Amino acid sequence: MKLFNDHFQNYKRYGIPKANLLIADIPYNVGINAYGSNPAWYVDGDRANGESALAGKEFFDTDKNFKLPEFMHFCSKMLCKERKGRNSSPCMIVFCEFWAQFELKKLAEQYGFRGCINLVFRKNFSAQVLKANMRVVGNAEYALLLYRDKLPKFNNNGKMIFNIMDWERDTKDDLYEKIHPTQKPVKLLEKLIEIFTDPGDVVVDPVAGSGSTLIAANNVGRKGFGFEIKKDFYEQACMWILKNETIKTEIKENGFSRTLMRIQKPEQEVLFPA
Ligand SMILES: C[S@@+](CC[C@H](N)C(=O)[O-])C[C@H]1O[C@@H](n2cnc3c(N)ncnc32)[C@H](O)[C@@H]1O
Fold first, then answer.
1. CA proximity to 1, closest of 263, 254, 252, 248
2. CA 177, CA 121: separation in Å to the nearest integer?
3. Does residue 55 belong to any structural domain of this protein?
């Protein structure tokens, strides 16, 4: 598992293996209204407290420089070739804003990804609370499952896979760290990775943010690689990845993890001095 603090276009420098699955949560390009329907727009999420420092801000200054054709070109090079036979070909999952799906699908076709299945993730909450007076608020996230000509590998013990899935949130017990404003749940990523890859396969996230995809890939025995251009996210992601690896090693060697116990039950710290 390896995360690089670089633009994904520089992938050749790192000699990473071709991916069986690419997962990307591309920047939303929502400009200075990134928090427009999010409580974070106001101090403590309350309009009465006035606007917070996030009001009128973009998520990242890198958003406006994100070029979809560059991204698609990268994907077409990074994803391994189609395999002979059925149920073995690679694919990519691109999380994106609802309206961005249409442009993305068109562009993907130009780069050889002619197959497309839309995925919808149902949340049991909505971040659009400020729009509550509109009565209809968004509680879905969207992604496109893109592939070349052959259907991708689907591992679900022969059962159907629905295109609408529950958005299972991570909890503190899962060693969850909140690093990124658009962070995807590790549990959901694990589920997707298990469906579309086999153990030992390679998963690449070109816009890795918190490193959630790499953590998920590692948790389910796949090889994760990623790129994150912003140094502060990269550093926090590396720390989370390291903590996750330490816990797994401790469990493997001792049958339990002191690091995890300290996080889950800090009051018992005295029982497990460093
Ligand atoms: C929507 S966020 C991804 C969040 C991630 N899915 C998570 O769960 O934490 C997109 C990330 O891509 C990064 N990014 C933007 N352009 C990039 C580029 N050209 N190369 C690598 N990372 C990039 C941004 O800094 C941002 O952290």
1. 248
2. 21
3. no
- Domain for residue 51, yes or no? no
Which residue's CA lies nearest to atom 27 of ligand 1? 209
Q: Ligand 1 centroid vs 94 CA: distance in angstroms?
A: 12
Name the packing angle between helices 212-219 and 186-196 (round to 10°).
60
Whole-prediction pTM value? 0.87
Burial of residue 132, with CB atoms counted within 10 A of its CB: 0-12 exposed, 13-18 middle, 19 or more buried: exposed
Residues 39, 129 contacting (CB under 8 angstroms):
yes
Number of domains in the chain: 1
Residue 144 in 3-state DSSP?
A: strand
Burial 18-53 (b: 16+ CB within 10 A, else e): ebbbbbbbbbbeeeeebbebbbbbbbeeeeeeeebe
Residue-wise pLDDT for 145-190, tens only, equals: 999 999 999 999 889 999 999 999 888 766 788 899 899 999 999 9
Mutational pocket test of ligand 1: of 25, 141, 207, the residue with most ligand atoms within 8 Å of the beta carbon: 207
Domain of 131, in residue numbers: 2-29+66-78+88-271
CA distances (Å), origin 28, targets 38, 65, 96, 153, 255: 15, 11, 7, 28, 42
Among protein residues, the one whose CA lies closest to atom 14 of ligand 1: 207
Please check whether residue 23 lies inside any domain of the structure.
Answer: yes
169, part of any domain: yes
> Tens digits of per-residue pLDDT, 220-241?
999 999 999 999 999 999 999 9
Classify burial at 128, counting beta carbons within 10 Å of its beta carbon; exposed 0-12, middle 13-18, buried 19 or more: middle
Q: What is the CATH number for 195?
A: 3.40.50.150
Alpha-carbon span 54 to 56, nearest angstrom? 6
Ligand 1: nearest atom to the Cα of 237: 9
> Sign of dihedral through CA atoms 77, 213, 151, 85?
positive
